[in-house]
Amino acid sequence: MKKVFIDGSQGTTGLKIFKRFENRDDIELLTISAEKRKDPKERARLINESDITFLCLPDSASIEALTLVENENVTVIDTSTAHRTNSDFAYGFPELDGIFRQRIKKLKRIAVPGCYASGFNSIVYPLVKSGVMPKDYPVTCYAMSGYTGAGKKGIEQYESDCRNAELDSPRQYALTQKHKHLKEMQAVSELERTPFFAPHICDYPCGMVVSVPLFADMLNTKMTPADIQKLFSQHYDGEQFVKVRTLGYSENMIGANNFAGRDDMEIEINGNEERILITSRFDNLGKGASGAAIQCMNIVLGCEESKGLNFGE
Known about the structure:
21% strand, alpha/beta, six-stranded parallel β-sheet
């Protein structure tokens, strides 16, 4: 039985991870009392007593928490933004490439991807790796997310009885093009240009759609939607958590909340021979956060990757 500690168990992601251990018989969960949650000595004791520690903290607190690690056998899985482009950390998206899964198995430091970045890299990484997309392609990405991605304060705002009427509609943000996920979106997919990114927060709890449009004549190789679908099917062949749908899977519309409560992801290709649209749909708190963190832990433990997780057909 492995010992697990969640540093930051009262945040949105921490609570989701905590709940996923309710029926695990292979985990001993180390807990911290409410009055000592910010006590460095008590946190250090639990971190170094654990086999695996999840950091569900703001960036600065995650960086500080790493200084508390003295036991070289402790694996740290960080859900913050702080270490996602740090080469000393494995990037926690095993389906992207075999080397990603191997690094998760090997390294003692793992960075869980950002939710938007998970959808973006699921689309752009295969295109760049295959040579279909030039690295200097001017990538545009737009996305919709449920309001749980806004954290505790955002959730309270949306669920308040006297909330602002503006919250009834989708709201575009990151207007200065400085969203915190852009750094990993560019780095992981090895793009030379920073993508243009237009995220929206919407009035529903969970679920996310991330979309990347392509102009076929700007690709290194002229591709049809069928060609792109074949490329993605081959790239993600055998992966149970990333499903590439057949052409025409969605007849008219793609809902953003259909994967709420699930830990898998689906990719769909639409469009025509001139303009191709690729979408990635998943739960921002599942494959976009706590589900991805648990999947990484399962890889570290050498058990079935889907243990304790929920995925559909």
